[in-house]
Amino acid sequence: MIQIGDLVLELDDPLTLLAIGGAGVVLLILVLLVVAVRAAGRSARITEPLAWQMGKLGQRVEALGAGQERLAGGLHHVSEAQAKSQTAMLQLMEARLAEVQERMGESLQGSARRTAKSLGELQERLQVIDHAQQNITRLSGDVLSLQDILSNKQTRGAFGEIQLNDIVTKALPADSYSLQVTLSNGRRVDCLVHLPNPPGSIAIDAKFPLEAYEALRRAEDSESAKRAAQMLRLSLRKHIRDISERYIVEGETADSALLFLPSEAVYAELHANFSDVVREGFNARVWIVSPTTCMATLNTMRAILKDARMREQAGAIRTELQMLYSDVERLAGRVANLDRHFNQAARDIEEIKISSDKVGKRALRLDNFDFAELPGDPAPSPASTRRVTEPGE
After folding, report:
1. pLDDT at 374 (0 to 100)
2. pLDDT grade, residue 13 (50/70/90)?
3. For residues 131 and 125, what is the distance between their CA atoms, to the nearest angstrom?
4. Domain for residue 274, yes or no?
5. Any domain includes 220
6. Residues in CB range of 206: below 8 A, 6 or more apart
7. pLDDT, tens digit (0-9, with 9 covering 90-100), for 124-141
8. Can you give the pTM of this predicted structure?
9. Could you tell me if 18 and 163 lie in one domain?
């Protein structure tokens, strides 16, 4: 029996049992409804982000379709532009072909004109060659006249002087020699090279007697060759003696002089077959030189003159060297300062690199930071999901 206030329910009463059973059924239904409502709410929260993602996927599919349509339109425009370009290219090629044909025609006409002009110039050059042949003929006559000049002692001396002047002017500075100088004894020397003491000024004579050498060269038998050789030996000895007596003046010139030969052939002949005369020239301090050996001798003299002038300028050179040493010391100090600045700049750059590496590492860590959902966190809302996923789209 169950008593509720004034109400008394008997357990063996069928109505009571039916009421209790109905109440239990209602209570079970309410519990099931509550459980179902809570499960439906949880499912809605779980499927809401999935629905949002499906919506985004649909939007992307629509955008992809629009892109395909734009791509089709672009391909259509490209095909049209390509067709237009091909047409324009064909037109340009036709125009260029016509231009090339026109230029070829002009070139052929120009070639014909140039060929005609070249033939005219060739004819003119043939006339010039004929004129040159006439000049060669006259030159052969001039060579014969030159031989006549060399056969004359006075004119031959002038020829040797001209050759000597040419060599001296090329080898020495203009203020280091004098031409046709009259010495204190009244003798005129062809060239006087002004060297410092010692050795002093050196005289050069260019008037060598070639008559005996010409006779030796024209000799047809041994007897005439012997006579011509003896005459050449005597002429050489007399000329060497004259140079030694006339152009070596104590206190005014050096104790030696030069005998200039205007021919390498004569120089070779003397050293080959008249070595005794050459030795006599050495004893008389008269040095026999050819154009080649004269140039070498004059270059040696030039070196002597340069050395003498450097000795004269030794004081100025020493002063310049002292100033140069001061400049070098000043430059060394400035280089040291510059090196110190470079070292400081290198250290600053190294520190900047270290700071840059640190900044880069921090940026890399930020870039790799894991924003994944932590355990126990509530499910993200669509807005928060959108903020996370939009940068990676």
Report:
1. 45
2. low
3. 9
4. yes
5. yes
6. 157, 160, 161, 163, 164, 190, 191, 260, 262
7. 877 888 777 777 767 655
8. 0.42
9. no
Where a domain ends, among 322, 350, 377? 322
Domain count, the chain: 2
Query: Which amino acid would we find at residue 108?
Result: L
Three-state SS sequence of the chain: CEEECCEEECCCCHHHHHHHHHHHHHHHHHHHHHHHHHHHHHHHHHHHHHHHHHHHHHHHHHHHHHHHHHHHHHHHHHHHHHHHHHHHHHHHHHHHHHHHHHHHHHHHHHHHHHHHHHHHHHHHHHHHHHHHHHHHHHHHHHHHHHHHHHHCHHHHHHHHHHHHHHHHHHHCCHHHEEEEEECCCCCEEEEEECCCCCCCCEEEECCCCCHHHHHHHHCCCHHHHHHHHHHHHHHHHHHHHHHHHHHCCCCCCCCCEEEECCCHHHHHHHHHHCHHHHHHHHHCCEEEECHHHHHHHHHHHHHHHHHHHHHHCHHHHHHHHHHHHHHHHHHHHHHHHHHHHHHHHHHHHHHHHHHHHHHHHHHHHHHCCCCCCCCCCCCCCHHHHHHHHHHHC
Tokens (6 digits) for 254: 């050096």
